[in-house]
Amino acid sequence: VTIDGKSCGTTPCNVTDVLVGSRKVEISKTGYNTYTQNIEVKEGEVANVQAKLSNVINVFIYTSPSVVASLYIDGKYKGTTPIRCDVSPGRHLVKIKHDRYKGIKESVVFTPKNSTLNYYLKRMVMRETYFYLQGGVQYDGVLSYGGSLGAYINNFNVQLDYYMSEPDIR
After folding, report:
1. What's the first-to-final CA gap in the chain, in angstroms?
2. Dihedral sign, CA of 139, 100, 126, 119?
3. Which residues pair with 77 in a beta bridge?
4. DSSP-derived 3-state class of residue 15
5. How far is CA 92 from CA 5, 57, 105, 116, in A?
6. Peptide bond into 112 cis (omega under 30)
7. Strand order of the sheet with strand 83-87?
8. Would you say 2 and 26 are in contact if contact means Cβ atoms under 8 Å apart?
């Protein structure tokens, strides 16, 4: 439990030295969402805060090739890949978007054992002649590396890919 960022102990918590005024109370526990409530503390009165914390899973989502793509979970923008974010356990709709790659839309069941996901992105057909060479290395518990070599010529795409992931080496 924290009040205005200062630790006050663990629940159940009885704090008696809180100054009068508006205060921010946060209750957190590893593996659960953080509960936040703003309260008004008045002199001579007792302020009670009760919270129910929901389970969350810290997921890691990345893409191959290693490009910065927009990530949406259940229609809400979460950031860009690679990304770590908290998600409640269960089924969620994952969408990944990038200007030069085909979008991905997939229903995923997040569990503690299914918390690291790699999405392979396929290039979209371009109208112009375009040559590319890209590679990348990522590490966040899982070491991933590889690259692509390819060309777009008159609506024809040729691409060679090599991507590899090493098991968790922590």
Report:
1. 31
2. positive
3. 72
4. coil
5. 32, 12, 11, 14
6. no
7. 83-87, 57-64, 116-120
8. yes
Place of tokens 């002649």: 129
CA–CA dist 67, 136 (Å, integer): 9
For 59, the token pair is: 């997921």
Token pair belonging to 90? 């269960």
* Per-residue pLDDT in tens (0 to 9) along the chain, 170 residues: 889 998 888 888 888 888 889 999 998 887 777 888 898 988 888 888 888 887 888 889 988 887 889 999 999 999 998 888 888 888 999 999 998 888 999 999 988 777 788 888 888 765 667 787 877 777 666 777 788 888 877 767 788 888 777 765 54
Identity at 46, one-letter amino acid code = V
Residues in CB range of 17: below 8 A, 6 or more apart = none
Distance, CA of 142 to CA of 117 (rounded, Å): 10
Burial class (CB in 10 A: 0-12, 13-18, 19+), 160: exposed
| Sheet of strand 156-166, all strands in order from the earlier edge strand to the far edge | 130-139, 143-153, 156-166
